[in-house]
Design a protein that fits this description.
136 residues, alpha+beta, six-stranded antiparallel beta sheet, four-stranded antiparallel beta sheet, 30% strand
Length: 136
C-alpha cells in the first residue's frame, strides 16, 4: 500500500511539475509580447496610411513628403495592424530597413532600438491602405 501512495505522490508531483512547465512556457510567451508592447503602447494612437500607386510606390505613413520623429516614449517603433502585412521603416538619413511581417492584432516591431528624435516613415508592402495603432 505504501508503494502505491509513493507512486501516486510521484505521479501527482510529475503532473504538477509538467503543468508548471506549461505555465512557465505560456508565461514566457506572454512576457515576450509584453516586452514588445511596453507601457509606451498603452494609449497608442490609431493611424491610416496613404495608399500606394504601384509596387514601386507602396502604401506609406505619414503623409507623402513628411516624417514622424521617434520620441523618448518608446525605444522601438511599435505597430499593431488591423490586417497582417509587411512593413519597413525608412529613416531620413540612413534609408530603409528590410520588410518585417507583422501579424494582425498583435504588437510588432517595425524598427527596434531607435534613437530619439530621428525622422522616419513607414512603407507597407502593397498599395492598399494599412490601419492600426502605432507608438514610437
Amino acid at each position: 500500500m505504501r508503494n502505491r501512495l509513493k507512486v501516486v505522490s510521484l505521479t501527482s508531483a510529475g503532473l504538477l511539475f509538467a503543468s508548471g512547465m506549461t505555465a512557465v512556457t505560456m508565461g514566457s510567451a506572454a512576457a515576450s509580447d509584453t516586452s514588445i508592447a511596453r507601457k509606451c503602447t498603452a494609449s497608442a494612437p490609431r493611424f491610416t496610411s496613404s495608399p500606394g500607386t504601384s509596387s514601386k510606390d507602396p502604401a506609406f505613413w505619414p503623409a507623402r513628403g513628411t516624417y514622424a520623429k521617434t520620441t523618448t516614449r518608446c525605444a522601438d517603433i511599435n505597430v499593431k495592424l488591423d490586417k497582417t502585412r509587411e512593413v519597413r521603416t525608412c529613416f531620413k538619413k540612413t534609408g530603409c530597413n528590410g520588410y518585417r511581417k507583422l501579424t494582425a492584432g498583435k504588437w510588432g516591431l517595425a524598427a527596434k532600438n531607435v534613437k530619439d528624435n530621428v525622422p522616419f516613415y513607414l512603407q507597407f508592402k502593397g498599395t492598399s491602405k494599412a490601419t492600426g495603432l502605432i507608438d514610437y
